[in-house]
Each structure stands twice: as C-alpha cells, then as structure tokens.
Amino acid sequence: MFKIDPTANRINPLETKRFSDLGFTERKHLQEWLENYPQALTQSDGDELLIIQKEFDGFDDTRERLDLLAIDKEGNLVIIENKLDDSGRDVVWQALKYASYCANLKKQQVVEIFQRYLNQKAQNEGTAPADAESVLLEFLQADDLQSVQLNTLKSQRLILVAAHYRKEVTNTVLWLSQFGVNCQCFKVTPYQAGAELFLNVEQIIPTPEASDFMIGMMAKEAEEKNADTELKHRHTLRMAFWEQALEAMNQSDCTLYNNISSGKDHWLSAGSGLSAMPYNLIFGKNEIRVEFSMQHREPERNSFVFERLQAKKSEIEAAFGDTLAWLPLPNKKACRIQYAKAVDGYNKDHWPEMVAWLVEHMIKLEKALGEPLKVVRNQVRRDDFGAVSMAGR
C-alpha cells in the first residue's frame, strides 16, 4: 500500500506493521473497531451487518465465548471470530462450534440476546437502551417479528478475521464452501506512515469475483437437487399410477398389457405386431392419452404405415367413435395417431376416473385399428415394402 504525495507527485510505501508491534490487542482494539464499524466486513452497500452481541457466552453447558455476533439483511446470524496477527490452527473448528450453538437459537431468543447487548451498551454510555425488536425490524425492513425469517435452518454464516492465515485454515474454509457453508476470511493489515496509522481490510476467501461465481454455483446445485427430487417424486407417482392402470387393464377385455410391468416413465407400451410400433398409454401432469406410435428407426417405414392407415381415416374414426389426432411429424422420425384428455394428473383423487378413461379408449383404439393394421402388417412384411409404398402413391 502506498501513500500519495500530490505536492511532489510521488507515492511512498506505507510500512506494514504487526498488531502486536503497535500494542493493539484482539478484544480491546480489533474487536472494538469491528463492533462499531461492521461494514468493514461487507463487500457491497446492500450487504449490511448489525452487531447484536459481543463476547457472547450464552451457550448451555459451555464457558466458551464468541467474539462478535451479528445479523445480516437476510436474517442470518453471522459469527465473527478475530485472531489478530495469526489465525491459529483451530479458528475454523471454533467458529463451527459457535455456529452449531447459534443454530438452535429461536427468534425470541435472538431478540433477547440483542436486548441484553443494547442494555449493556446503554449502561456504559449512560443513556436509555433502545428496543431490540424495533431496531431489528427497522434493520430488516419488516413490519412485525412474526413475518421475519430469522436464523433459519443451515443459514448461519462465519466470518474469520486475521492478519495471517495458516494453510490448514484456508484449505478447510475452501473445502467447507463446497458443502454450502458460508465462510469468509478477511485479512486485516495495519500500516504506518510517520505518526499516522492505517488499516486495510481485504476479503481473501472467497474473493469478490469468486464469491459471485460460488453463489451462482450453489444456486445451480440447489436447482439441480430440486430437479432431482422432483424427478424422483414423479417416478414414484408414475409407478403407483401404472400399477392401478395395469390392474384395471388386466380386469378388462383388453389383453395388450397382460404381461407388462409398471415403470417410472410417463408412457407404458404394448406390442401391436409391428416392430417398433407400439400402443402407448400416456400419463402426464396435465394430460392422459392413448396412441399408436410409429417409431421405427427407418423413417420411411413409419411414413409408409402412417399413410396406409390415414387412407382409412374415416373408417378408423367411425369405429373409434371420435376424431383422432393424426400426427405425421415430418421433422421427426416418429408418427402418431392419438386421442387425449386434459386432466389434473398428479391429483390422486382423479386417478380412478383417469384409469377408467385410459382402459375404455385403449380398447376402442385397438379395435378401430385392428383390421386396417392386419392389412398394413402384410404389406410391411414383404421384402420390398418401399416398392409397395411407391406404387400406392
């Protein structure tokens, strides 16, 4: 760090000092500075801290004291540990213990801790103490305590402050960050220039740039975990639904699904006698449907079958009893003939009605396609079905 001399148009290096060389102590000086100006430990205007206790020892069955306890704008408790010239080897373990103790604090207990701090501070200054709840609500910009999220599960933050960090400390902090533990390391360095003293406070873990990246990565990880949980939930739902559907199918006149097991997919397939062209039952969040799907790896084979059936469209729909959706899907390999119904699929109360609908309409679809498919099967089984296709156009 340099001091600018505008008169001489020069910069002069400041002398790096140790706190101990200057006679500064952890509690009497560094702790006092941070207590009265906690924004030294923030990186942006919106990231404010409110100190709610110092030398806090209100932990059951232990005589340990944490240096400073603060709260941030999100209502998270922030444990601040100061170590002056050297971080020591055990500062992370110490801070984690305090975080675990604080994790059990209920909303009203936090208010009471803050009130004791304000009472002691007012007594030292000879003034009337402020009301802790009012100060908290003003800081959090909330109307009432009941609506505030305060010290929620796994929300505790750690801030370590020291002039020098041992490798075992920085390695552990970086490792903890991979598990979502919000831990910051601030390097504090005193400087001297003549009779003037200066203090530089710098966040080194994570760096401001890395902090944004880590926040983004944690958000992405949380999103992926939520997606994975949602997927597992859907798999469980589908298995349960298909079990009901298969039971109903086996008790009906439809024999397509007699040897089919339930699965986790949103579809359940049964053979039609044509390779890679199954009958499908579809179960979705907003829709159920029955369909005949032409999904052979040879697109021309799918088109051939689709066109032959579409030529019998009026006959097939009359047998089915309603208009079907005919989907040639020219930009994809598959073709489909389907019939759908809008539903609230994940509401289990609706499942009996949905299962009955699927059974009824799969029976209708199989019957409507029965005779036309027999003709198409014979055509497809010819060695040169492509020539048949060309001749029919």
TrEMBL record:
Chain ranges of the DUF4268 domain: 237-371
InterPro entries: DUF4268 (IPR025364), tRNA_endonuc-like_dom_sf (IPR011856)
Protein name as catalogued: DUF4268 domain-containing protein
Organism: Marinobacter daepoensis
